[in-house]
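Reader question, answered in our methods column.
A reader sent in the components of a multi-part assembly and asked whether the whole thing could be modeled at once rather than chain by chain. We filled in our standard form and ran it. Here is what they sent:
COMPLEX SIZE: four components
ENTRIES:
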Amino acid sequence: MGIKERKERHKEDLKAKILEAAKKLFVKEGYEATSIRKIAAEIEFSPTTIYLYYKDKTDIAYALHQEGFSLLRERLSALIYVEQPFERLKAMGRAYIQFALDHPDFYELMFIMKEPMEYLQAHHPEEDWPEGERVFDGLIQTVEACQKAGYFVDMNTAEVAMLSWSVVHGLCSLHITSHFKHIAEKCSSYALPEHEALLESIFQTYIRLLDGLK
Amino acid sequence: MGIKERKERHKEDLKAKILEAAKKLFVKEGYEATSIRKIAAEIEFSPTTIYLYYKDKTDIAYALHQEGFSLLRERLSALIYVEQPFERLKAMGRAYIQFALDHPDFYELMFIMKEPMEYLQAHHPEEDWPEGERVFDGLIQTVEACQKAGYFVDMNTAEVAMLSWSVVHGLCSLHITSHFKHIAEKCSSYALPEHEALLESIFQTYIRLLDGLK
DNA sequence: TGCATATATTAACAGTGTTAATTAATTTTG
DNA sequence: CAAAATTAATTAACACTGTTAATATATGCA
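And here is the structure of the entire assembly that came back:
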């Protein structure tokens, strides 16, 4: 039954091509502007064909969401070579910020928009969010290692991990939504770095707070 | 010319009624689901009448955005009675979190969505964001007072303020976008508090880090 | 070759924000 | 007071959106 297999392969191909087209449009024009009809035009199929491969638009959003997480995981897992756990934690924070700066659209989809997470809750209430968990697991393990090295003593590991995440996410999302931009302009008397360097600098301030601990 | 004034007043009234209707729908069903046509039906006018009072939909979003900021400012300015600056800073953080929990829709509009800030940038590039700045000014002043009391020494005031903001915003936004929910479920071994108590608990963890400084 | 199945398409529905043209009401002016 | 001008509100329309049902087309199997 080689024919059947070829059809299967074609089907997989088309599904991938849809996602590829969606990603292209989405990176260029954002999620809202990426319509089913535009995706269809991109791959030269009729709009309804998309629905043979993806349940609805949020299904596509979720697929991209997953892609984003494997991109992020790649970057973070590259840091296992940093042996000192606290140094690794800091490096993870910087890598996370850099990811957000390099892929603001993906970041928005992964962490700012509600749609993909709500889709997850509605359609996969069981297994929930394997990609995200793997990333978070890495963070948990690093925090645990930090605790063994004398940092964050007597603190809940998961809570420290969530706090670390909150700090960098707060920085990245306030940057992406251009909240920082507006505020920074009015803080000329404080000699703040500009744009992306500001994020790095605030993160450094956070690190200095943590350094004061041990 | 009392008639002219009455008409002016009527015009102001209708503008306010539109905003009121928009707020009602927006709080109940969210921003996307709040269409111009629904707002119009709510006040029993035709959809195009809205455009005589607001430039476009983002103009309405921005008006609500501003309302949200005066709500937040009310809460934060109620904390000036807390004399110890570091205590006040902590209280501001808790009040900010409570605001996000009490008004998640407003919070989303104010800090998560891009539309109102982009509208601001596009239509009022000069004066930029008076409501937001006043809130941030209060934070800056509190941080400054903390520094005079020996906290955050040798650190950039504005950066410490932005960091403080990032921490609570990170917490609130990851909560609202239900990212924490999915992660927390998989962290049963860490005995985490549930839902909103989790935010308070993580914030407490942050406070413990800061407490270790002075 | 004929039938069944999977695949893709067209047509359509119910919405969306927004603008132009038109009508109704009100105020100002001759 | 009546006519003209201004203002306010409406209807109709455009160009979209996501999505579904009904229809056509091509393919694999007996």
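What stands out: Chain A is about 75% helix and 0% strand. Chain A has two domains: 1-54, 56-211.
Send us your own complexes using the same form.
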